[in-house]
Amino acid sequence: MKGLPKVLVLGPPLCFSSLQPLYSHKFHFLNSHLSDLSLQHFLQLHHPPSITAILCDAAGYSVTAEVLHLLPSLRLLVTISAGTNHIDLRECRRRGIQVAGAGAIFSEDVADMAVGLLIDGMRKISAADRWLRTQNHHNAPWHLFPLGSKLSGKQVGIIGLGSIGMEVAKRLESFGCIISYNSKHKKTTVSYPFCSSVVELATTCDVLVLCCELNEQTKHIINREVILALGKGGFIVNIGRGGLIDEKELVKCLMEGEIGGAGLDVFENEPRVPQELFEMNNVVLSPHAAALTAESFMNMCELAGGNLEAFFSNKPLITPVMLPE
Ligand SMILES: O=CC(=O)O
């Protein structure tokens, strides 16, 4: 251990338990998440000025300016997530701390989940499963199960056409959907129609899929006006972050029948899920699990370890996160 770079591990283990045995001969991991102590007290036992890196994920600790302040020698932060809204990136920039993320490693799995939630919601797969299990097996009145909606031919608006959004577009195009998108900037490399207004996009679409990052500009990008513009038959999929949707308004609109349904992998105040959603058959829920496949986690372990190794051998990070000006 002596002489190895100290890496403070924040948040729940997830892939950390696979990563650490592979790299424990190269790094001295300090597992604050396994301790009952508060972070401040934990750090008091580990000489904070000797800690140069953090390993974290989106489901654990928020890496605020206050947390960063506890670590005067911090030079690297590796998050095993595509999203970075749990990190104060401005403070990282100010302090000259480099940040590495998941890059596009989860994009295919997250896109699969977006499509899964959409098909499940529109074709009522989970609802049908629940319904059938409550029926008498030999005598179920199958004709009474309500009709679903056809996916092929639907207008799908993707909000955020980064690597996840592109994977969603590719998949849904092959299902016969018609794709348009909203994003920070119009892309010169794609032919899908761009719509600069989310309300306008909602007006012309049957489905919205949220694939953008959560930041000051995108918080509550889906508000009541957008939901009403999408309309009573409309469906929203969120595999981005819960804060992209004004959740209270979504719940209200679902209860009032102002929108057709939703497929939600993320929630505004995780791990809390609004109780009302559990009662709704037109809503499909998932516990922020879109990125979680055994394969993507093994890949992520290697990537996180690779970023740590690159940094400590003075090489460029493999998947650097751009820090804001
Ligand atoms: O939510 C998961 C991620 O950001 O990778």
CATH superfamily of the largest domain: NAD(P)-binding Rossmann-like Domain
Attached small molecules: glyoxylic acid
Q: Helical region count? A: 12
**β-strand amount:** 5-15%
- State the shape: globular
Q: How many domains make up the coordinates?
A: 2
The name CATH uses for the topology of the largest domain is Rossmann fold
CATH architecture of the largest domain: 3-Layer(aba) Sandwich
Tally of strands: 11
EC number: 1.1.1.79
Domain D-isomer specific 2-hydroxyacid dehydrogenase catalytic: 62-321
GO molecular function: glyoxylate reductase (NADPH) activity; hydroxypyruvate reductase [NAD(P)H] activity; NAD binding
Family: Belongs to the D-isomer specific 2-hydroxyacid dehydrogenase family.
Short recap of the structure:
By secondary structure, this protein is an alpha/beta fold.
Secondary-structure map:
Elements: E1 6-9, H1 16-23, E2 28-31, H2 39-44, E3 51-56, H3 65-69, E4 76-79, H4 89-95, E5 98-100, H5 107-123, H6 125-133, E6 155-159, H7 163-174, E7 178-182, H8 198-204, E8 207-210, H9 224-230, E9 235-238, H10 247-255, E10 261-264, H11 275-278, E11 283-285, H12 294-312
Parallel strand pairs: 1-2, 1-3, 3-4, 4-5, 6-7, 6-8, 8-9, 9-10, 10-11
The structure holds glyoxylic acid.
Glyoxylic acid (GLV) is lined by residues 58, 81-83, 102, 106, 291.
